[in-house]
């Protein structure tokens, strides 16, 4: 008798769980995060994942989306491999996930864009939307633009334009060396640098233009020797991850006397690897640095910086993670549902007056326009550098700002909309 009663009880519990599972799942909108979580760029992917989880958690704490639905980040390891990323994309689709956030590796982004476009034509009831937070090859919002892809970082040409703008105020710099990773992104940096320096600083001589294998160089000394002998006064690089930190570390260790103009010097491990030898010499072009909250008296963003540090014991590097998640949440609420096609249309043309100036998701090509800043590595306490990076006693000093509309580059995008 007791056994029969227990079996009935177990059956009742299982039935309740079974019936409630769809309802529970319906209250959560899952977002696949496909970026490197192992290998030489694992630290970059892990830090990005933390940023997006943090941004999602803050949205959830404020009521979520669509009247209370929660956003959940689900990690998938891309290994910076297009082939592996496609496997992870299929795993995400098999789990019913319809949103993908990815950014590290333009070759990966290109593969995902193509696969998602084909999938969405084949399975119109299971469409997927890709939000690219860091792959900045211009073509993705130009000749290869696609309705199912949005980019929330400035692309290569936009960033190089900001660097060239700043260099118009530096007539003392006459010789520049280019060194980049040998894949589509690195070649885009080189091409854009040569184009915009010729337009805006035609007196500058490019004294070197090197490419190296991505993620495979452990000792950049041979490259540093070449740079040193070239007579360069400045270096421009789009290197990221260990390729960036090892390059600058080799240069400062060798006493290379030049300025570094980078996209990612403030990324994880950058200030630590660079060290005090980089003070006053290392620059970055970004949408954020942790001195802006002081300079612009942005208490909300200062609280965000401190809360991230308290939760993870690490520094926050990106504003784009917050912008990405805020815009996605706003688009879902505007659309009134979480269907990717409706959310994509809601994202088009979206504007936010806030952060550090107006931010616009351009409808023509799905390229985000946002204020961009040139900043220089300084001692903590100099200027507005209240907070240091990675407990190094160093922070960032903003030296130049470009408003969102002034970062825009004309796009040949001819987007086909469903």
UniProtKB/TrEMBL annotation:
InterPro entries: BCAA_transport (IPR051010), Leu-bd (IPR028081), Leu_Ile_Val-bd (IPR000709), Peripla_BP_I (IPR028082). Residues 28-381 form the Leucine-binding protein domain. It comes from the Bacteria. Keywords: Amino-acid transport, Signal, Transport. GO terms for biological process: amino acid transport. The keyword Iron does not apply. Residues 1-25 form the signal peptide. Belongs to the leucine-binding protein family. This is ABC transporter, periplasmic branched chain amino acid binding protein. It comes from Desulfatibacillum aliphaticivorans.
């Amino acid at each position: 008798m007791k056994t029969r009663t227990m079996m009935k009880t177990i059956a009742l519990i299982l039935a309740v769980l079974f019936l409630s599972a769809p309802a529970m799942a319906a209250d959560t909108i899952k977002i696949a995060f496909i970026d490197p979580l192992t290998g030489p760029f694992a630290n970059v992917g892990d830090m990005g994942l933390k940023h997006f989880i943090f941004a999602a958690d803050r949205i959830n704490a404020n009521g979520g989306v669509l009247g209370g639905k929660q956003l959940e980040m689900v990690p998938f390891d891309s290994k910076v491999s297009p082939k592996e990323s496609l496997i992870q994309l299929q795993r995400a689709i098999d789990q019913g996930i319809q949103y993908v956030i990815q950014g590290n590796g333009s070759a990966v982004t290109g593969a995902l864009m193509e696969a998602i476009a084909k999938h969405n034509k084949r399975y119109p009831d299971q469409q997927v939307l890709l939000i690219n937070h860091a792959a900045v090859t211009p073509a993705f919002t130009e000749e290869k633009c696609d309705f199912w892809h949005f980019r929330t970082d400035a692309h290569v040409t936009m960033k190089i334009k900001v660097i060239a703008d700043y260099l118009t105020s530096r007539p003392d710099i006459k010789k520049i060396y280019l060194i980049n990773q040998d894949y589509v992104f690195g070649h885009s940096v080189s091409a854009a640098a040569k184009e915009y320096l010729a337009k805006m600083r035609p007196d500058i001589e490019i004294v070197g233009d090197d490419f190296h294998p991505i993620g495979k160089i452990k000792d950049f000394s041979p490259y540093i020797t070449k740079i040193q002998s070239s007579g360069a006064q400045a270096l421009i690089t789009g290197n990221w991850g260990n390729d960036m930190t090892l390059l600058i570390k080799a240069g400062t260790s060798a006493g290379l006397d030049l300025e570094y103009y980078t996209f990612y010097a403030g990324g994880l491990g950058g200030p630590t690897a660079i060290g005090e030898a980089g003070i006053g010499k290392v620059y970055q072009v970004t949408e954020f640095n942790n001195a802006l909250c002081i300079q612009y008296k942005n208490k909300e963003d200062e609280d965000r910086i401190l809360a991230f540090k308290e939760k993870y014991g690490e520094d926050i590097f990106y504003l784009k993670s917050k912008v990405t998640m805020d815009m996605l949440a706003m688009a879902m609420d505007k659309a009134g549902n979480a269907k990717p096609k409706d959310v994509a249309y809601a994202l088009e043309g979206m504007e936010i007056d806030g952060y550090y100036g107006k931010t616009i998701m351009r409808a023509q090509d799905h390229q985000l326009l946002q204020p961009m800043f040139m900043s220089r590595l300084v001692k903590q306490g100099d200027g507005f550098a209240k907070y240091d990076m990675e407990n190094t006693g160093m922070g960032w000093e903003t030296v130049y700002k470009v408003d969102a509309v002034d970062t825009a580059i004309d796009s040949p995008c001819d987007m086909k909309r469903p």
